[in-house]
Task: inverse folding
């Protein structure tokens, strides 16, 4: 099988600057459209958002999408039409199955500190499900180890979604070599986001906020070229 990959350097992502919101889009979103960057398999959206103190997204709708939010710095104030209201802080993960339809709002909970987060959308493998919400505090990351934060299985580590996908986060010391073995290499690919630092994945040198998608492989060989934090998203390549 012939290995395929795509490289999205951090400075080639779509950008938006509304003053209160500075966003980077790995895939086409809102006013950013790139026909070569619509999705990676069922991974539809990977937004790297920087939200000013006290600002945010007013109530808006979603349906038939799995929405995952990972705060990197700060705290999100969340409210939705399912009756959920509260905060999500760095070190937690939030998931919503929009299903038949939901409304929600998200704001920076702080009056004086910025909020940084990833918002990720995944196409579901079941449409029109009953909407659901979940959030959890993730166990403290074990360094130099892949920590599972999302899967298709409600009884597994991390949150779960209506899709055959696995997310792992890892923080690695400079010089550490590790591997990631795909759960389903025949049908899946992995999109890696270098959250912080520098790393080399299957021979491709990557820097902070670079994205690298690879498929038709059984495993990834990863070296931390500096202290690095990496998010791996294994997803089906067919929608």
Result:
């Amino acid at each position: 099988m012939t290995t395929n990959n795509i490289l999205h350097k951090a400075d080639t992502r779509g950008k938006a600057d509304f003053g209160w919101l500075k966003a980077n889009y790995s895939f086409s979103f809102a006013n950013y459209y790139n026909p070569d960057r619509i999705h990676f398999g069922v991974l539809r959206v990977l937004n790297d958002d920087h939200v000013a103190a006290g600002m945010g997204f007013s109530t808006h709708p979603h349906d038939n999408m799995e929405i995952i939010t990972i705060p990197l710095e700060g705290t999100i104030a969340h409210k939705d039409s399912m009756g959920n209201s509260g905060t999500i802080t760095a070190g937690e993960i939030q998931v919503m199955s929009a299903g038949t339809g939901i409304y929600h709002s998200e704001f920076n909970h702080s009056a004086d500190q910025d909020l940084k987060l990833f918002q990720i959308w995944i196409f579901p493998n079941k449409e029109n499900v009953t909407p659901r919400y979940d959030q959890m505090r993730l166990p403290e990351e074990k360094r130099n180890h892949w920590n599972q934060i999302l899967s298709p299985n409600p009884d597994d580590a991390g949150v779960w979604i209506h899709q055959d996908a696995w997310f792992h986060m890892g923080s690695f010391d400079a010089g550490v070599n590790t591997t990631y073995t795909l759960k389903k290499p025949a049908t899946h690919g992995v999109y890696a986001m270098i959250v912080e630092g520098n790393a080399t994945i299957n021979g491709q040198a990557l820097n902070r906020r670079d994205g690298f998608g690879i498929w038709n492989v059984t495993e990834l060989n990863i070296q931390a070229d500096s202290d690095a934090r990496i998010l791996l998203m294994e997803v089906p390549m067919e929608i």
Notes: DSSP finds no helices and 22 strands in the chain. Residues 4-125+141-236 form a domain with the Jelly Rolls fold (CATH 2.60.120.10).
